[in-house]
């Protein structure tokens, strides 16, 4: 399999720096809104469980909520197929605008949904349908946004594409800040009565801003050059021609998605397994968000100089080898400091992997099929390994009685991605 970093149809002439900066802001704000709505749902899982999915005991109620969190990911592959192919056919800009409208619709439905006490199962069904709409939207967002960023400047693809995951760090930061406020500034009664709705209404407030900014974007020059020649791929052609690259891109995403969605379980883990105050679960994820936002672009820029795979190999190996001993130490020496040190170290290692990741994934696919290729590989990996991560980890802890379940899951995901990066290096892409 030949792996190329650019299409011959595009000369690689970068757009002006000021224009590119505006494009990064446009993509990042909209991307942050998309993932903010998903992250908030995971962080508020315990509260949503009580309000919408009451069960015979707290554990089953929480499991129902995590299952509802995961069911949205069943829609991601469908959204990836539809919106990814749409982005390759009509452009990244139109696909990005459509995805953000759909995400806002789902967010609005959750924000105004009546609880089980107020409307019975109707409120629960409304939340599930909203989650399905959000999942469909998110399925297409990643491919379109990543392709757009990667095509802004092929000579600095690592730096520009890294903002895909840096903006997700902004999401963690915002969602965690809400978690800190809701758990420290409100009483449990206020949180359950109206406080849990605040983050979703916040998402609705910034939604129109993101839509306006994205309407001002210009299509990427790399895609425009290919589109003018009529060199675009149908969905079937992408699947057939790029099947090995789809599998490799899938393998690259595993570590990122396992870590990202295990992160959403950590506030519940801090309370239920470590018996820390709820606010500390969110301050831990707040720390991770800060590190991700600051360090991801740095590692992305570094990959433009030394290659994509060196830091990715080191980071995945460190996580695979060190995460179980780290959690074991935390379990036997529970403290606020140990919890935050572990999460900080995990976040730093993760940025070494995620910084070059979007660029490496983008370089696996030619421009004509990049949107669909990125969307499909990412969404299937997230669906299989990420969306049900909180559910799987909660079940593992309950079944085994071991607090090391998150670490075992993270080590497994890290090993799979480590093997994938080694294979890609053997194909000649560094």
From TrEMBL:
Superkingdom of this protein's organism: Bacteria
InterPro entries linked to this entry: H+-coupled_symporters, MFS, MFS_dom, MFS_trans_sf, Sugar_transporter_CS
Family matches, as Pfam families: MFS_1
Keyword line: Cell membrane, Membrane, Symport, Transmembrane, Transmembrane helix, Transport
Entry membrane topology: Multi-pass membrane protein
Domain Major facilitator superfamily (MFS) profile: 23-430
Gene3D superfamilies noted in UniProt: MFS general substrate transporter like domains
Subcellular localization, as worded in the UniProt entry: Cell membrane
Transmembrane residue ranges: 24-53, 59-83, 95-113, 159-182, 194-213, 246-267, 279-299, 311-330, 336-360, 372-397, 403-424
Entry similarity comment: Belongs to the major facilitator superfamily. Metabolite:H+ Symporter (MHS) family (TC 2.A.1.6) family.
Listed name of the protein: MFS transporter
Naturally occurring in which organism (per UniProt): Paenochrobactrum glaciei
